[in-house]
Amino acid sequence: MSERKPRKTDLSDEQWALMEPVIAAWKAVHPSVSGHQGRYEMREIVNALLCQARAGCQWDLLPHDLPPRGAVMYYFSRWRDDGIDRTIHDLLH
């Protein structure tokens, strides 16, 4: 992914260091059915979720320099269903 200007809602390096192992463990248990590793960096997926939550924008209005809404919504839904969203929330607070 190309470099983009950071947003106020982006994860700090310290925050990412806390949640990266949780997301990596989740991905290890939930491999892609097609076998690919994913097109988007997980940190950028989380940054998109934080941007959407903070701005309160519709999914279709996510900024174009973040992963597309389909990818972000996929992880949001899966993490919500698996409870990982709660773990991420707790790590950030």
List keywords for this structure.
93 residues; mainly alpha; 4 helices; 0% strand
Chart the SSEs and their pairings.
Layout lengths: L12 H17 L12 H14 L13 H14 L1 H9 L1
Helix pairs in contact: 1-4, 2-3
Protein name: Transposase
In short:
The protein has 93 residues and is an all-alpha fold.
Question: What does this entry look like structurally?
Answer:
It is built from 4 helices and no strands. It is mainly alpha-helical. Helix 1 packs antiparallel against helix 4 and helix 2 packs across helix 3. The longest helix is centred in the N-terminal third of the chain and has 17 residues, at 13-29. The protein is globular and about 30 Å long.
Structurally, how many domains make up the residues? 1
- How far apart are the termini? 28 Å
Spatial shape = globular
Helicity, in percent?
Answer: 55-70%
Query: Cα-atom Rg, whole angstroms?
Result: 13 Å
Q: Could you give a short account of the major beta sheet?
A: none
Number of strands: 0
Protein name: Transposase
Organism: Streptomyces scopuliridis
